[in-house]
Write a sequence for this structure.
């Protein structure tokens, strides 16, 4: 804003130049940064499955033996039990999604906590005297 005031005094012209500069600075910087981090956790669970297989084998053996002219029949029954243990490892993958919210708040405020208005006023007065003939 420039104000020029011209005043005529007798034979002199007085030029007064008033320069008024008003600077209003409002500094409010609020930065809110929200970081959402998705963390994937892979959990490997090994589950052992035990399978028991029981196999029963029956063997019948008939033996005919002649002892002193007599026929003797011998029956042999054999039972065979076979136990088979099978251990199988089953891999189970469990995916756990963890959402981590990190809030970073940066508040930069000059002089005052919330809002500060800084007014700088510069006044320059220039007086020019011009001689008029």
């Amino acid at each position: 804003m420039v104000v020029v005031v011209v005043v005529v005094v007798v034979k002199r012209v007085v030029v007064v130049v008033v320069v008024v500069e008003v600077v209003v600075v409002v500094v409010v910087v609020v930065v809110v940064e929200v970081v959402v981090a998705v963390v994937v956790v892979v959990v490997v669970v090994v589950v052992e499955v035990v399978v028991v297989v029981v196999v029963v084998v029956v063997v019948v053996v008939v033996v005919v033996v002649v002892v002193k002219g007599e026929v003797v029949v011998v029956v042999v029954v054999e039972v065979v039990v076979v136990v088979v243990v099978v251990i199988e490892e089953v891999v189970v993958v469990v995916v756990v999604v963890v959402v981590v919210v990190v809030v970073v708040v940066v508040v930069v405020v000059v002089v005052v906590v919330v809002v500060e208005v800084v007014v700088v006023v510069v006044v320059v007065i220039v007086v020019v005297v011009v001689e008029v003939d």
About this structure: The chain has no helices and five strands. The CA atoms of residues 20 and 123 lie 5 Å apart. The longest strand covers residues 28-67. The radius of gyration is 53 Å.
